[in-house]
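Run log, item B.
One chain of 318 residues. Sequence copied directly from the ordering sheet:
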Amino acid sequence: MNHTIVVLDGYTLNPGDLSWEGFSALGDLRVYDRTEEKDILSRIGDADIVITNKTPLTKETIGKAPSIQYIGVLATGFNVVDIEEAKRKGIPVCNIPTYGTDAVAQFAFALLLEITNQVAHHSNEVKKGRWTASPDFCFWDTPLMELRDKTIGIIGFGRIGQATGRIARAFGMEVLAYDGYRISNADCKYVELDELYAQSDVIALHCPLTPETEGIINRGSIAKMKDGVIILNNSRGPLIVEQDLSDALNSGKVYAAGLDVVSTEPIKADNPLLKAKNCIITPHISWAPKESRTRLMGIAVDNLKGFLAGKAVNVVNK
């Protein structure tokens, strides 16, 4: 059978520095950089293989595209697909469960180090001429912090949480962890949430978005934290009640936040965190090093190969 493969929004994964050859070897390939909602059905057409990243495949869309036999998601999260409708129609939905563990953990610390050392700010000030004009041999505009002997509390201690913990220990930090599933021989101290809030100098979010974790950082949980805590989130934006975090940053209860994700992406102009004090926001790029995107592409191709061979893997709607 000659398969038709359509990629609805390929640009983010591959803006030109990767190859689609793995997919094109498996069928007739059509790749669109982006697809607006009004064009989804027409672009799917008679394709039996549909690949999406953030383009939604709703119950209605799936119902109106009877040719679909397989849906591949170019991400770990798969909430853009109505997986129950796909299951009802016998369509496997396959995601990419692990590809950027080290990249995401690295980025968590990039956010933290920017907060503690303000490298970009001071570099910019030097280039403005402030060091040249300085009466002293050095200057700094913000408190500079050493991480050794500080405590990091990691909410969600799966692969990424564990990788973040390893980096933290290399900096001499104590690692507290909260997770519903506790692994044996973990190099951390497992605690309940209230203890993590009370003891942590830095809190890093690495948990999935579920009904239980949505809004886990809120006015009430922040009140249980140390004054001057640092909060990091490069997991999922809705883990944080953004107005509550903004208020805490502006009051000084939270010293700083480093965020790579927000509740609605792209970020809305009225997001309260845009005007909050000491808040670093980056545009959801923890996953984006070329190395991790290359792994993602390879796993996506392998997922499709598995399906075509009758042995689907990474199926999220069994």
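Observations after the first pass:
- The radius of gyration is 22 Å.
- The longest helix spans residues 290-308.
Flagged for discussion on Thursday.
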